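Student: I would love a firmer grasp of how sequence relates to backbone shape in proteins. I am handing you a single protein, as its sequence and its fold in token form. I am told such tokens are a discrete way to write the fold. I hope you can help me see how the letters and the tokens relate. Take your time, and here it is.
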Amino acid sequence: MTIRNRITEISLWVFSISLGILIGATVFEALVITPLWAGSPPESVRGWNENPRYAIESRIFFGLIAPVLLLSTLVSLIAGWNMPWTRRKWLVAAVICTFIGFFATVLFFVPILRETTFTRGAGLSDAEIVEKVSSWVTYNWWRMAIQAVGWLAALRALSLRHLPPDSRSGSRPDKGAI
């Protein structure tokens, strides 16, 4: 195995593991943490993390895993660009799903959290809090589904590394072929 192939394999493993950790944390947050602040808005938002001694700060964890995931995503895409098309298409699908999840988080989810949980809804009406929380919870399930598809695609790319030599062709399939 060449150095480039080792780097490709290692980066794909790190990417897959990082994405798996993110998905696990996101599911935990959706099932355990989110119901605490979104369970009965606006009261649950206004009362969120009132006691700093017992505050739950998910952003600390996600702030640590996000850079690792982004870096591993970029490295695996660059390192894996020359891998056979049979594997590369799964890697590209995983990267696209990861970027969709990341940009949705930065552009949609974090701003809502800043307006609701970070400030306990200060400056928002009860109706605005209810609407924002409802949107966040609903779209979070879609984000998790997209990330899960990305993770499965990354795992598929990993699983194809032991293909027989004749099926590891680096060229794209002809039109009409699957």
